[in-house]
C-alpha cells in the first residue's frame, strides 16, 4: 500500500471535519491548512527510475490523504492527476472524499462508466451526510464504490443504499485526537449487521480516542486505536 498526496490543504465543509487530523498536524508547524498547494509528489505515480521502470510499485494507492481530491482549487491539477491514474492501470487508486457532489468536475473525456483501477469512497459521518452523499455516489458513473463512516458521530442507517448491491464495502471508525467526539461500539455493530444482511464487506478501522462500549467510556491512545479495532474481530470479508 502507498499514499500519494498530489496536493495539500483543505477547507472544512461538514461535521466530520471539525477535528481534522491534517489541521492538527499542520498547526504544530504553524502551517495554514486552508491554503491548497500542489505538492512535490504530484508526479509520483509516473516517476521512473534510471532503468525506465516506474518508481512506484504496483499495488494499492490511497490518493490525497491531506486534502480532498475534488477540492475546487485542484480542478485544473486534477486533469493531469486523472491522466497519471489512467497511465498506471497496474495501480489501484482509492480516493476518499467528502465532495462527491464535485466528482464530475474535470472528469476525463474517456471516463465512460469509470476506470477499473479507481475506487471512490464517500465519507458519511452522520445520517444527514449519508442521505446527502450516498445517493450521489450510487448515481454517478463509478465502477468501484465504498462508504466510510469516519469519524462516525452517531448511529447511521444505510441499509436501503446497501441493498442496491453497488456498494462494495463499508468502513467504520472513531475520531482521533485529544478532543475526539465519542464513538459508540453499538453504532459500529449496527452498521456491521446492515452489511451482513446485505452481504457487503465491512471493516472496523479504528476505535478512535473516545470510545464507548457497554456503557463505559474508554480513552484509547492513538497508537493502539487500530489494533484494538482488529482485536474485536468483527470484519466481514
From TrEMBL:
Database matches in InterPro entries: DUF5131
Top-level taxon of origin: Bacteria
Name this polypeptide is given: DUF5131 family protein
Lineage: Bacteria, Bacillati, Bacillota, Clostridia, Eubacteriales
